[in-house]
């Protein structure tokens, strides 16, 4: 099977102590319905646990749901641990209650798009597809 | 004493009366049928005529929707009387308005204490503590798992020391306090009792509530610590201790709120919550407690969502089902055991980040439904809660919303004013019927705990959430300012609260100072005694109180119990 035929693999993760997983489960189901291969971590994951799972499952994307206000700690830590593990090609994206200023600041630290409340799931799906197309396109060209 | 003075009617008169009624009914049926034919032909708006829960709503309700054997006294009765459909108390808001209780907590105990003084000064009549995630999960502020979450989503309380600061200058014998804590509820409850002790307030004077509803944590909200069996034992320990020592305190608030917020329908919220309630009753009975010793202090907490009538009907159905079961199945004799008392909160999940000012209006309608449903206390959400913790200004508007409702609309003037509405009564009956069907389904699974272990509740809730999301995304369900009536003003322009980033550091310093000055021997002794008690059937409350008084921390106490109880592992799926 060639690289292009492989399904996009996404790890949907709930970092930190927050148990509100309605959003995570809705996005996991929507990603699966969109044809992605989805792995869901379950609750109360540390950044280390998430990065281990991402490497082990060989995912393309880590999508984190953070509603607890701890996003400024959790996103940069996961990004740093991914990079340190040599997985800097994994897209780190997500959603939750994240103020605009923080979204910008996280973007500057290598975090992908972050989706706020009320986002249609199709928007996140399109974003992941587009990112993957660009990435595999670039890889094929190179 | 009054006697029937008028003459007994003759058989002929009775027959005539019956014929007249039959004719009237036939006439009504014919007219309704004609109306239906007309309705079928009429153009209809292209929207879903279903409730937010997906329930089909008829275009018209008439007396035909009430069955003939619905006797008024059996189904509705009077307020404060069995089956309590019309309200838990005889005189309801004529005697006392609902308690206006805003859920609040952020940063450290000092900052939250200031917010409490502000709320009380503004006419709020009770307090409600929001804890941060580390506290909710039983971690101290200086535990590695707490990193980045200390004081962010609520107040950080890691010991009696923090609890004393939280209620500084607030007399705990006068102000009733509700605490939203579940997994480690027994520990925070003991901090609270010990803090009152320090104020010279004995437990029998305490009024208020601790949420302490672990079953809905496994089902929906997910802030657990211990596995179900030891967790349920600790809850029954609290029932027992409170019935002996704190008779005016509610040791549990059986909560549908989180079940609904996680995606459940109104009927699921109603059924799962009440079924959880029955589970707690059965656990108490299994301990050998007298049902009438603890059932009067069981309290409830429901969500008030957007569908106005469905929510009012839900509260009425809840009271009727609870009363009937408590009396008929569990043999309660004290009417206070039959009476369902509830707190309500407007539905956080209905708030939109887009055009956030619209949320003020949503909350106002929801608050009105709560009052028409006969709630005992109410939290109204602030317009900015999808963006951050609320600012003082937005909390004030939310509180003023309740005050306008209470003092300007006339809603509290008469008790259960919508009773007798053909629609509302049909809806109340329908919800009761659906709840009974769900009870049967849960029984088939073997009960609540096996249902949780099999992931049944979690899956039911998730699939309802998915259905609602799809309706919104297909545009079948209009959310104003989100998928319709958008005008470019969706950008957030309101100010939001920023929690001081030095909180974690300050809280760590507080913990270090506490660990330095307390008596280490007392800490070790009381923790060891707790672990020993956990291994026997002894009531844990006195042991944890000893730990609290010795300034053992939350995590130390949790850990001392965990050695015996173990930790909960969730079944993972989506």
Quick description:
The complex is a heterodimer of chains A (142) and B (574). By secondary structure, chain A is of the alpha/beta class.
Overview of this protein structure:
The complex is a heterodimer of chains A (142) and B (574). Chain A is α/β, with parallel strands linked by helices and 142 residues long. Chain A has one domain: Rossmann fold, CATH 3.40.50.280. Helices cover 46% and strands 16% of the residues of chain A. Chain A has a 5-stranded parallel beta sheet with strand order 2-1-3-4-5, with helices on both faces. In chain A, helix 1 crosses helix 5 and helix 2 packs across helix 3. The relative contact order of chain A is 0.18. The mean pLDDT of chain A is 92. By secondary structure, chain B is of the alpha/beta class. Chain B has a single domain (72-473), classed as Methylmalonyl-CoA mutase (TIM Barrel, Alpha-Beta Barrel), CATH 3.20.20.240. Chain B contains 23 helices and 10 strands. In chain B, the strands form 2 sheets. Chain B has a 5-stranded parallel beta sheet. Chain B has a 5-stranded parallel beta sheet with strand order 2-3-4-5-6, covered by helices on one side. In chain B, helix 11 runs parallel beside helix 13. The radius of gyration of chain B is 25 Å and the shape is globular. The model of chain B has no long low-confidence stretch (mean pLDDT 94). The chains are: A alpha/beta (142), B alpha/beta (574). The interface between A and B is large, with 37 and 42 residues.
């Amino acid at each position: 099977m060639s690289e292009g035929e492989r399904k996009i693999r996404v790890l949907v993760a709930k970092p930190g102590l927050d148990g509100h997983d309605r959003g995570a489960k809705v996005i996991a189901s929507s990603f699966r319905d969109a044809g992605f291969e989805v792995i869901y971590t379950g609750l109360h994951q540390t950044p280390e646990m998430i990065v281990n799972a991402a490497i082990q499952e060989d995912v393309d994307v880590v999508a984190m749901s953070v509603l607890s206000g701890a996003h400024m700690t959790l996103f940069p830590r996961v990004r740093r641990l991914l990079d340190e593990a040599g997985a800097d090609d994994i897209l780190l994206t997500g959603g939750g209650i994240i103020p605009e200023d923080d979204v910008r600041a996280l973007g500057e630290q290598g975090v992908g798009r972050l989706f706020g409340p009320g986002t249609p799931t199709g928007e996140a799906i399109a974003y992941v597809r587009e990112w993957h197309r660009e990435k595999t396109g670039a890889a094929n060209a190179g | 004493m009054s006697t029937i003075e008028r003459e007994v009617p003759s058989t002929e008169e009775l027959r005539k009366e019956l014929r007249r009624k039959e004719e009237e009914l036939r006439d009504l049926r014919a007219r309704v049928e004609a109306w239906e034919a007309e309705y079928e032909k009429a153009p209809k708006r292209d929207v879903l005529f279903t409730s937010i829960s997906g329930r089909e709503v008829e275009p018209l309700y008439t007396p035909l929707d009430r069955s003939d054997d619905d006797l008024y006294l059996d189904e509705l009765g009077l307020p404060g009387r069995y089956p309590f459909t019309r309200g838990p108390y005889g005189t309801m808001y004529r005697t006392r308005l609902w308690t206006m209780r805003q859920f609040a907590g952020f940063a450290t105990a000092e900052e939250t204490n200031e917010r409490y003084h502000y709320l009380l000064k503004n006419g709020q009549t009770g307090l409600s503590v929001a804890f941060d995630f580390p506290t909710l999960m039983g971690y101290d502020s200086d535990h590695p798992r707490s990193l980045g979450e200390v004081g962010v989503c609520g107040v950080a309380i890691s010991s009696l020391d923090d609890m004393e600061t939280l209620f500084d200058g607030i007399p705990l014998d006068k102000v009733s306090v509700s605490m939203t804590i579940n997994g480690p509820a027994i520990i925070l409850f003991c901090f609270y009792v010990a803090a009152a002790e320090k104020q010279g307030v004995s437990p029998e004077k305490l009024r208020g509530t601790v949420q302490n509803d672990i079953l809905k944590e496994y089902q929906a909200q997910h802030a657990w610590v211990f596995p179900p069996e030891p967790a349920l034992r600790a809850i029954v320990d609290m029932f027992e201790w409170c019935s002996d020592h704190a008779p005016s305190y509610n040791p549990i608030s059986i909560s549908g709120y989180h079940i609904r917020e996680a995606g459940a329908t109104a009927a699921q919220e109603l059924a799962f919550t009440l079924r959880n309630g029955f589970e707690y009753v059965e656990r108490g009975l299994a301990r050998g407690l007298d049902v009438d010793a603890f059932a009067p202090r069981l309290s409830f907490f429901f969500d008030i969502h957007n569908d106005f009538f469905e929510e009012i009907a839900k509260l009425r159905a809840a009271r009727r089902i609870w009363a009937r079961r408590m009396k008929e199945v569990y043999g309660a004799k004290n009417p206070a055991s039959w009476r369902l008392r509830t707190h309500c909160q407007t539905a956080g999940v209905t708030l939109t980040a887009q055009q956030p000012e619209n949320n003020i209006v949503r909350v106002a309608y929801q608050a009105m439904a709560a009052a028409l449903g006969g709630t005992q206390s109410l939290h109204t959400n602030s317009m900015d809660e999808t963006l951050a913790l609320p600012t003082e200004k937005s909390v004030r508007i939310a509180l003023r919303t309740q005050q306008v409702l209470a003092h300007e609309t006339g809603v509290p003037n008469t008790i259960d004013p919508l009773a007798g509405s053909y629609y509302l009564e049909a809806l109340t009956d329908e919800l009761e019927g659906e709840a009974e069907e769900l009870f049967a389904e849960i029984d088939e699974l073997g009960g609540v705990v096996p249902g949780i272990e099999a992931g049944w509740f979690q899956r039911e809730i998730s699939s309802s959430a998915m259905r609602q999301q799809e309706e919104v995304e297909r545009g079948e369900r209009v959310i104003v300012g989100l998928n319709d009536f958008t005008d470019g003003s969706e950008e957030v322009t309101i100010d939001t609260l920023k929690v001081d980033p030095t909180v974690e550091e300050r809280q760590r310093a507080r913990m270090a100072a506490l660990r330095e000055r307390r008596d280490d021997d007392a800490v070790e002794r009381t923790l060891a005694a707790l672990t020993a008690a956990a291994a026997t059937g002894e009531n844990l409350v006195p042991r944890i109180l000893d730990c609290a008084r010795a300034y053992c921390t939350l995590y130390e106490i949790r850990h001392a119990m965990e050695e015996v109880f173990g930790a909960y592992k969730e079944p993972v799926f989506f």
